[in-house]
């Protein structure tokens, strides 16, 4: 029998509905809740068999087996806490929320209710990340000692500075909102979580662009174009912009690994570059899509740039983000139905939020290091054990 799946928030990540709505093949989207008229209209057009509403109670009472929380980031906890309390296995889009308190509340609620929680860190299914981790796990470069990530966000002006992303109230900052993916990947490749973080950053370009407007009723498809270049000539930016467009973050992980993350939203190119250095060599990706390559160096040289000892081609995949999106939803639906281990981790998702939030506090303060507070041990044990069945409190 198909799982009955609900969706809360039919906006930027609503494309995930395609992977959840497969009537007769395991799952069907039967209810959608969105506060916006346009979101409801889009849902009704794409999934005409679903109940479409602006009332979350209607969705919660519709007999769901699973739910995707795809609202703007600062509403994740407000919705996920209610879906978890209703006993509905919950997919929460990354980041868990925009504050550490809200992220911890989601985890605590999942623990207290025993309701399954899954977080949408789809990059744990992206071929480039999976293949780099496989090389590390095989011991090819020895013990990891450093991870560097440079993120060239070439579409930053169109993606993040024309809508709700541009305001701290909605995101805390892009070092968290956009960086949560990469912080999680850094943690995953390094095998540890940030214990101490420090950062610097600025609103260096988009704050000086004078063309502004209210884009509330518009969507990215209404304004996106590669012709919006150079960044200083962008038009129709959000009326309020108070997040950084360039940031640089340093991390000391709890296993001694040192890491750094750099994010820039006004580059001409759009890709991520990871470098992982171990005791026996290093790896680095050149491009992050299908057909690009991961270079592996394991032989010492005495001159400048040397050809790598091995070149690994990055695999292809069907669906968004190199095939990661369909794999992500398939894993969540399997987890909602049967439980078990998953590639994603609520603990890891919380640690990415914690690192991003505290790094943002650092860059907006005096750039001093911030210590990451630990979760209660009972929560760590519960989620690391795969969220075993619990007797729900009455």
From TrEMBL:
Coiled coil, from the record: none
Domain called Gfo/Idh/MocA-like oxidoreductase N-terminal: residue spans: 3-121
Cross-referenced Pfam families: GFO_IDH_MocA, GFO_IDH_MocA_C
Every Gfo/Idh/MocA-like oxidoreductase C-terminal domain range: 134-366
InterPro entries: Gfo/Idh/MocA-like_OxRdtase_C, Gfo/Idh/MocA-like_OxRdtase_N, Gfo/Idh/MocA_oxidoreduct, NAD(P)-bd_dom_sf
PANTHER family named in the record: CONSERVED EXPRESSED OXIDOREDUCTASE (EUROFUNG), OXIDOREDUCTASE
Family assignment from sequence similarity: Belongs to the Gfo/Idh/MocA family.
Name of the protein described by the UniProt record: Gfo/Idh/MocA family oxidoreductase
Organism: Arthrobacter gyeryongensis
């Amino acid at each position: 029998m198909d799982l009955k799946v609900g969706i809360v928030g039919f906006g930027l990540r609503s494309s995930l509905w395609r992977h959840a709505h497969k009537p007769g093949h395991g799952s069907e989207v039967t209810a959608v809740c969105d506060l916006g008229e346009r979101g409801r209209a889009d849902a009704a057009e794409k999934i005409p068999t679903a109940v479409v509403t602006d009332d979350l109670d209607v969705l919660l009472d519709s007999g769901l087996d699973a739910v995707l929380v795809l609202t703007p980031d600062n509403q994740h906890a407000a919705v996920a806490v209610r879906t978890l309390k209703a006993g509905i296995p919950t997919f929460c889009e990354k980041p868990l929320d925009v504050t550490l308190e809200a992220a911890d509340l989601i985890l605590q609620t999942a623990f207290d209710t025993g309701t399954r929680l899954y977080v949408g860190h789809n990059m744990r299914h992206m071929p480039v990340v999976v293949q780099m981790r496989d090389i590390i796990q095989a011991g090819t470069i020895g013990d990891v000692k450093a991870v560097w990530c440079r993120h060239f966000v070439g579409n930053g002006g169109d993606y993040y500075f024309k809508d709700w992303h541009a305001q701290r109230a909605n995101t805390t900052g892009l070092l968290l909102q956009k960086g949560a993916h990469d912080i999680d990947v850094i943690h995953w490749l390094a095998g540890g979580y940030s214990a101490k973080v420090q950062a610097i950053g600025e609103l260096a370009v988009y704050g000086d662009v004078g063309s502004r407007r209210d884009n509330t009723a518009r969507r990215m498809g209404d304004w996106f174009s590669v012709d919006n270049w150079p960044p200083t000539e962008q038009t129709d930016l959000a009326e309020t912009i108070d997040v950084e467009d360039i940031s640089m973050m340093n991390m000391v992980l709890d296993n001694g690994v040192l890491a750094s993350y750099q994010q820039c939203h006004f580059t001409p190119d759009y890709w991520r570059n990871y470098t992982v250095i171990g005791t026996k060599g290093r790896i680095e990706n050149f491009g992050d899509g299908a057909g690009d390559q991961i270079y592996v160096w394991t032989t010492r040289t005495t001159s400048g740039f040397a050809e790598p000892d091995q070149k690994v081609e990055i695999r292809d995949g069907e669906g968004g983000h190199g095939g990661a999106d369909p794999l992500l939803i398939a894993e969540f639906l399997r987890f909602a139905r049967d439980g078990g281990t998953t590639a994603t981790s609520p603990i890891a998702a919380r640690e990415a939020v914690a690192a991003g939030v505290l790094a943002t506090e650092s860059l907006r303060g005096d750039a001093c290091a911030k210590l990451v507070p630990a979760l209660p041990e009972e929560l760590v044990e519960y989620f690391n054990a795969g969220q075993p069945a619990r007797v729900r409190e009455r």
